[in-house]
Amino acid sequence: MTIGIDQLNFYIPNFYVDMAELAEARGVDPNKFLIGIGQSQMAVSPVSQDIVSMGANAAQPILSEQDKKDITMVIVATESAIDSAKASAVQIHHLLGIQPFARCFEMKEACYAATPAIQLAKDYLVPRPKEKVLVIASDTARYGLNSGGEPTQGAGAVAMVISHNPSILELHDDSVAYTEDVYDFWRPSGEIYPLVAGKLSKDAYIKSFQESWNEYAKRHHKSLSDFAALCFHVPFTKMGQKALDSILTDSASEDTQARLNEGYKSATDYNRYVGNVYTGSLYLSLISLLENHKLNGGDNIGLFSYGSGSVGEFFSATLVDNYQDHLDVKAHKAMLDNRKALSVEEYEKFFNRFDNLEFDTETELEVEPKGNFYLKEISDNIRYYDTVK
Ligand code: COA
């Protein structure tokens, strides 16, 4: 019996700001953002794209009418919840037209939550061979204008259909999770932006990775040479590289070191132009790896998920033969290429409008592809969605 990722897609907002321009506006050497942090562009959220519309937009292209009948559980992983009670999964379930006899709920543990969602889906499906689970990771990463975290913002959603006999990745029963109570990044209820201990957050990430990986290698008698590539949670591209560097020691052969370093470059190609998408970052990185790197069916991929606070998890999966046929590379490249560049001044306007929920639908929908979902209005604290005509 194999269970895993049958379909995989992402959505990002149609606006971005150039990181060199942002650096200049902030009086910072552009190389700090481009090289030190490793980001070239940053996705900017319009008010009309929240976690619900982005999640639905990520899922819509990969769901057939049959999938909508087979899906019996919808899980949304997010740390940008728009409601403390009602789960965004319920709204996404409605927008996508999934059959009504389904469980829908939200999961939270900073950027980590999509991983337990996938693991839960895998276990849930064991006695249900005909059913499927839709897992969505959707977030708007925001630290505030002129804040330390500003260059590591972003927005986007990743949708994954988990099923038996998957077409893309078979998940193994080998995950190792590591939990440590640490205040490296948190957002107390009522705060718009998270609080971050920047240096601690980098150290906590690396420690969590090393603990998870070392325990994984010990329990399963594995070494780095067993993996064709490794994927990481990518708050910014330099972060995963630092974690990788920390274990690429002399014990790994030159071939292994070169292979994993090359793989990491491919696995962060998309993230470098999107920024942090919190819960979806690892899975955007996975798509980036699969669409920008030469791999084969049967190859083993190692994945490291991290959520501040903190929980880390290392797990692995095997690529299915002809997985390439189930990825829409052309659509993904077009989505990245067709975005509208914003000047820093425009980005700041977008940013403030998002906080104040000031709609400017005409400007925002000009570049949104027809048929996509968007947040139309909020009335009496109820969010109303529509599709672009
Ligand atoms: N050219 C090249 N590199 C440069 C540079 C330049 N001109 N100026 C600085 N750098 C490098 C620094 O040496 C540093 O690299 P290092 O980490 O390898 O030492 C890197 O750029 C970042 O510089 P730093 O001084 O640490 O930046 P910062 O104090 O502004 O904070 C973050 C960076 C990531 C901590 C901050 O953006 C943040 O808090 N982000 C949100 C939290 C987060 O994403 N945490 C990650 C774990 S989840």
From TrEMBL:
Binding of substrate, residues: 148
Positions of the catalytic residues: 79 (proton donor/acceptor), 111 (acyl-thioester intermediate), 233 (proton donor/acceptor)
GO terms of biological process kind: acetyl-CoA metabolic process
EC class of the enzyme, as a word: transferase
Entry-linked PANTHER family: 3-HYDROXY-3-METHYLGLUTARYL COENZYME A SYNTHASE (PTHR43323), HYDROXYMETHYLGLUTARYL-COA SYNTHASE (PTHR43323:SF2)
Entry keyword set: Acyltransferase, Transferase
Residues bound to (3S)-3-hydroxy-3-methylglutaryl-CoA: 29, 143, 242, 276
InterPro entries in the cross-refs: HMG_CoA_synt_C_dom (IPR013746), HMG_CoA_synth_N (IPR013528), HMG_CoA_synthase_prok (IPR011554), Thiolase-like (IPR016039)
GO MF assignments: hydroxymethylglutaryl-CoA synthase activity
Protein family membership: Belongs to the thiolase-like superfamily. HMG-CoA synthase family.
Short name of one Pfam family: HMG_CoA_synt_C
Taxonomic superkingdom: Bacteria
Name by which UniProt lists this protein: Hydroxymethylglutaryl-CoA synthase
Residues in Hydroxymethylglutaryl-coenzyme A synthase N-terminal domain copies: 3-164
EC number assigned by the record: 2.3.3.10
Hydroxymethylglutaryl-coenzyme A synthase C-terminal domain ranges (all copies): 262-384
